[in-house]
């Protein structure tokens, strides 16, 4: 979802902790203290914090009276949300205190998750003067995120008088790079299948794809790879002229029609292959009909379910069967 324009529509009620007028007064007071030196020599608050339900009051609600707080809801299983946190951390450094980033693990903070009405992660909110507003759901390009932050900072100052104190660039922590993610066993098996297929090792490719599907039957990439490998294995060593002659001489011979359909598909004649097998289903009965139907479904996997030629052939098959 694209970042949205800043407005106070859709704010999340956080128990009315701070009214706008009260927040503005506190912001003015804090700014006056910093200018007069009464704030003391305490070090600047960190720009990136990990918030919990126990620290939410002090780290987010109270702080939002003096600086915009951006909350990023994330989960360890959602890689996209961790990547977004890396981007937001980098931006927190670049903005040097104009906003504070608070990250919240949704599994460790179910109450916050529910209170903000989070539908999924990544999800990013802002808290101003004790009230929260949604910023965006899902990932977004860094320039667009920066635009949203600019809007947030402008609303904070114009509506609430909240201006975060500028922090020395040397005090800003740099975002730690994400450690490289190791491939899973399934990904390794899938890669092995692709490598074997590229090398012409059709038997090895078939076995590798079957290994993936044994653990993950719905894996679309493995299904496609297996269908391609099995198709190439069937036509390997075939005599095209002999195969086509046999199919022409024996129109009711299921095996002859299957072999010819395989050659049609490998040769790029997709509609011919589909039409041949639909006609074979029409002319046959019992086990022969089922064999032709299943081969046609296998060839659909090779081309892909979204291809319009597959859609048309499925409709033709349905008319024959029903």
Task: Write up this protein.
The protein has helices at 20-36, 56-62, 79-95, 110-115, 142-160, 185-198, 202-215, 220-235, 240-249, 254-266, 270-283, 286-303, 308-321; strands at 48-50, 69-74, 100-105, 123-128, 131-137. It is α/β, with parallel strands linked by helices and 322 residues long. It folds into three domains: 20-171, Glutaredoxin (3-Layer(aba) Sandwich); 184-236; 238-322, Serine Threonine Protein Phosphatase 5, Tetratricopeptide repeat, CATH 1.25.40. It starts with 19 loop residues before the first helix and ends with a helix. The model is unreliable at 1-13, 15-24 and 37-44 (pLDDT under 50).
Count of spatially separate domains: 3
Could you say what the CATH topology of the largest domain is called?
Glutaredoxin
Report the end-to-end length measured between terminal Cα atoms: 42 Å
Q: What is the CATH homologous superfamily assignment of the largest domain? A: Glutaredoxin
Order of helices and strands: HEHEHEHEEHHHHHHHHH
- The Rg value, from CA coordinates, equals 31 Å
Give the structural class: alpha/beta
Strand line-up of the largest beta sheet:
1-3-2-4-5
Strand content: 5-15%
CATH architectural label of the largest domain: 3-Layer(aba) Sandwich
The major pleated sheet works out as:
5 strands, mixed
Give the % helix.
55-70%
Oligomeric state of the chains in view? single chain
Q: How would you describe the shape? A: elongated
């Amino acid at each position: 979802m694209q970042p949205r324009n800043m407005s106070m529509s859709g704010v999340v009620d956080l128990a009315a902790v701070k009214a706008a007028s009260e927040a503005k007064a506190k912001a003015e007071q804090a700014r006056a203290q910093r200018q007069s030196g009464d704030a003391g020599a305490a070090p600047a608050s960190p720009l990136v914090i990990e918030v919990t339900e126990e620290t939410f009051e002090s780290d987010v609600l109270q702080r939002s009276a003096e600086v915009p707080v951006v909350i990023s809801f994330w989960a360890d299983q959602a890689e996209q949300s961790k990547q977004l946190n890396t981007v937001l951390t980098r931006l927190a450094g670049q903005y040097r205190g104009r906003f504070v980033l608070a990250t919240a693990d949704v599994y460790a903070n179910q109450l916050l998750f529910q209170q903000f009405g989070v539908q999924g992660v990544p999800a990013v909110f802002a808290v101003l003067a004790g009230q929260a507003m949604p910023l965006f759901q899902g990932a977004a390009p860094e320039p667009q995120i920066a635009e949203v932050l600019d809007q947030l900072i402008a609303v904070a100052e114009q509506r609430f008088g909240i201006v975060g104190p500028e922090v020395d660039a040397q005090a800003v922590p740099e975002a730690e790079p994400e450690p490289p993610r190791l491939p899973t066993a399934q990904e390794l098996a899938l890669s092995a299948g692709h490598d074997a297929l590229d090398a012409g090792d059709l038997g090895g490719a078939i076995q590798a794809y079957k290994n993936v599907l044994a653990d993950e039957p719905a894996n679309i990439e493995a299904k496609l790879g297996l269908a391609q490998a099995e198709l190439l294995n069937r036509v390997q060593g075939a005599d095209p002229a002999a195969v086509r002659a046999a199919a022409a001489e024996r129109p009711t011979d299921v095996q002859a029609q299957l072999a010819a359909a395989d050659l049609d598909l490998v040769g790029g004649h997709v509609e011919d292959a589909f039409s041949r097998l639909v006609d074979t289903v029409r002319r046959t009965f019992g086990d022969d009909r089922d064999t032709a139907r299943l081969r046609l479904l296998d060839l659909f996997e090779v081309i892909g379910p979204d291809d319009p030629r597959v859609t048309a052939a499925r409709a033709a098959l349905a008319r024959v069967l029903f």
